[in-house]
Amino acid sequence: MKLELHVWRQSGQFEKGYFEKHVLDDLDEHMSVPEMLDHLNTKIIKSTGSPIAFESDCREGICGQCGFVINGDIHGPINGTTTCQIHLRSFDDGQTLFIEPFRAKAFPIKKDLVIDRSAFDRIIQAGGYIGVNTGQASEANTILINHELAEKAFDAAACIGCGACVAVCKNASAMLFTSAKVNHLSMLPQGELEASQRVTNMVNQMDEEGFGSCTYTGECEKICPQGISITNIVDLNRRWFWK
Amino acid sequence: MLNSRIPEGPLEEKWKKYKANAQLINPANRRNYKIIVVGTGLAGASSAASLAELGFNVEVFTFHDSARRAHSVAAQGGVNAAKDYKNDGDSVWRMFYDTLKGGDFRAREANVYRLAECSMSLIDQAVAQGVPFAREYSGYLSNRSFGGVQVSRTFYARGQTGQQLLLGAYQSLMRQNDGNNLKLHTRHEMLDVITINGEAKGVTVRNLDNGEIVSHSCDALILASGGYGKIYYLSTLAMNCNATAIWRAHRKGAFMAAPSWTQFHPTSLPQLGGYQSKLTLMSESLRNDGRIWVPLSPNDQRPPNEIPEEERDYYLERRYPSFGNLAPRDISSRAAKERIDAGCGVGPMGNAVYLDFKDAIKRDGEKIIEQRYGNLFGMYQKITGTDAYKEPMMIAPAAHFSMGGLWVDYRLMSNLSGLFVLGEANFSDHGANRLGANSLLQACVDGYFIAPSTIMDYLAEKSPVKSPKMDEWDSAVIKSKSEVIDRLQNLLTIKGNTTAEEFHKELGQILYKKCGLSRNKISMQSAKNDLLILQKRFYEELLIPGSTNEINFELEKAARVEDYLEMSILIVEDALQREESCGAHFREEHQTDEGEALRNDEEFKYVSVWEFKGNNSYELHKEHLDFKFAELKNRSYK
């Protein structure tokens, strides 16, 4: 299989970036996108070039580390799928691909396709937890949670922190990410007490990081690899107003 | 030489007694003690958060860009606890015995009992953190069954239990990361342990973003850096999983126990081609409802749905009628290999077996199966393009979990004073084979409940090194830093023509073939030879681009592969030395007429513990295992 790649190269956060062209004609349609880049990097290294810096760890769609923009599509051409789970069979033989990093002011580029998403960690640090110390817990079955609520909490908790929602948003808003954590914790009885403080602190931190505002276009839900619903954003707004 | 420090007394009293007698440190003094934690998976994050909550001064290092990426995140199936919510006869004793037997009686009784004993508190802790475990319609917690047991004691959050537990631990960690009690350093890799007078007193780390090499001192060091199954290259582990932290500690004197005991997971997706970088795991929980089979006759090319019932061999149900498809992992993997070697394997490379949900769908309906395994079926479809509701999945054994690791005593402290090793990085609770859903448990129990007690007990006898004797520390730092810098520089200057990844692939092929699911003396002797040649070639032909003072993933990989190469030689040595079969360690010379593992309790009722002597040579120490409470039995699942 043959592909013409144009890959984003940028040696540092404040350096100028550009697309670098590579033509690969010995690809297998069952390769994943990171495997294709491994293959390309081996060639680059052997011709004493500088390999493309990119991150991809678990390669099964759960660690949230990978994520590129491929021909304008966040993570790649299949909605709801991380880049590591996109295989070359999703492309046509001979197709041209433009591969670039997720772009957002709050996610500065470190090198090539590697971005800094530590803003997400700081949002969690601001309130994305239940304040329980080790040893304080009561017997687990004293807290009853009905099946539907547990499933709903899981749906919000499933976020992998990849940042696709930010990358796809025209305002680079982190509302889907933030609201998923706010709701996962606040809808559960264990997390209810801190709900008001949580939403305040997390939203404030989100604003401080330079993410944009949400205008509810719904693009984030469409591409989220875990299918996190934008109803979480509605719930966050409700919690914010009534806090 | 090896003192396991197991408290005296009855099994069920040991941990209580330890805790009751453990020394304490006044809350106001705890901040004077600095504890370094390497790794932010379940064991690292949970210990770091718990110690910071107690008031210790904690500094945490991870090579990831965020603590949440640690590979605990990928564990799917569940976490065990002896809550007996099902009223199906479970108890701490039964869980202890299942785990000990599952490990083929090659673990310490006292450790295993403690694991089962603390399991209940972990579920309580996780629920309090907001981990959304599966619930019954009544609101109570739900359980399912896992391999190697006949009770339902596994708690789960769909197929993402590891992710949810890790997020709980990660959130607790971030909650403490305010710079007062805890400071987290992401993108920092530990490359050396600093020892002073035989005690672990610090680490040297590399900032992976700019290459800066820095040393940090501490009063106690925790390594929670995970397993090393990725040494086989094709494995269920993440690309960056490595043995570097534990191997560097080993080179500084920490003993390595049973390094050859690697579990091969029976339900991974098979390899499809040479470009492949990893094998994706499908949760073992699928074996609750899926039936495993291969065609009865070799080289049957028909699609699975065209093979009639009577021409299928449900080999696990045939060989192990009482456990059937839920036989433990080592046994299931070997049974699959036996059929694949007999030519009955399926798939394009003939290297897989079927996992079939036809009967379960007929019995329970597609909706129920979707509720239980929806995300796994979705994942399978994404990777393979096949709809597992319509035709069986193809699965195969893959390198997965390291039972072996740094040797630790009952306190989880290695022979190097002050060095604690938690989670998969240590050798402690799983013996020669780990039971499903015990891995998340062990990592959490080590971190939340054991280390906080034992580390405080250890530190109480020490005065804090607020200001270490400067001359001693300074010279140790200079030495450590220059060793690290020289090592990386030497690797960079080889400038050969082979990438680190290519060496890693070759290493994996040798190990899979000659020291994998089953091993024999002749194949391992040839493996040793191959590995020595490969190691020699590595130092002559390695090619790393770029420099040390920038983001350089190739340099990171190469240093990890260098450690893997050295470790692989010890792995083979360890497997060669153990002339018996036990758990995941299957020596072809030692099997019953029916092809089952043949243990040799008379000669090998001990853990092999290796001391690094330099130049690929090691000295063997033995920790003899006493079974005072559980009866040693032949491990049968028939």
TrEMBL record, chain A:
InterPro entries: 2Fe-2S_ferredoxin-like_sf (IPR036010), 2Fe2S_fd_BS (IPR006058), 4Fe4S_Fe-S-bd (IPR017896), Beta-grasp_dom_sf (IPR012675), Helical_ferredxn (IPR009051), SDH/FRD_Iron-Sulfur (IPR050573), Succ_DH/fum_Rdtase_N (IPR025192). It comes from the Bacteria. Pfam families: Fer2_3 (PF13085), Fer4_8 (PF13183). SUPFAM superfamilies: 2Fe-2S ferredoxin-like, alpha-helical ferredoxin. Its cofactor is [3Fe-4S] cluster; [2Fe-2S] cluster. Residues 150-180 form the 4Fe-4S ferredoxin-type domain. Belongs to the succinate dehydrogenase/fumarate reductase iron-sulfur protein family. This is Succinate dehydrogenase/fumarate reductase iron-sulfur subunit. It comes from Belliella alkalica.
UniProtKB/TrEMBL annotation, chain B:
Residues 504-637 form the Fumarate reductase/succinate dehydrogenase flavoprotein-like C-terminal domain. Gene3D superfamilies: FAD/NAD(P)-binding domain (3.50.50.60), Fumarate reductase/succinate dehydrogenase flavoprotein-like, C-terminal domain (1.20.58.100), Succinate dehydrogenase/fumarate reductase flavoprotein, catalytic domain (3.90.700.10). The keyword Plastid does not apply. Keywords: Flavoprotein, Oxidoreductase. InterPro entries: FAD-dep_OxRdtase_2_FAD-bd, FAD/NAD-bd_sf, Fum_R/Succ_DH_flav-like_C_sf, Fum_Rdtase/Succ_DH_flav-like_C, SdhA/FrdA/AprA, Succ_DH/Fum_Rdt_flav_su, Succ_DH/fumarate_Rdtase_cat_sf. SUPFAM superfamilies: FAD/NAD(P)-binding domain, Succinate dehydrogenase/fumarate reductase flavoprotein C-terminal domain, Succinate dehydrogenase/fumarate reductase flavoprotein, catalytic domain. Its cofactor is FAD. Residues 35-440 form the FAD-dependent oxidoreductase 2 FAD-binding domain. The keyword Ribonucleoprotein does not apply. Signal peptide: none annotated. This is Fumarate reductase/succinate dehydrogenase flavoprotein subunit. It comes from Belliella alkalica.
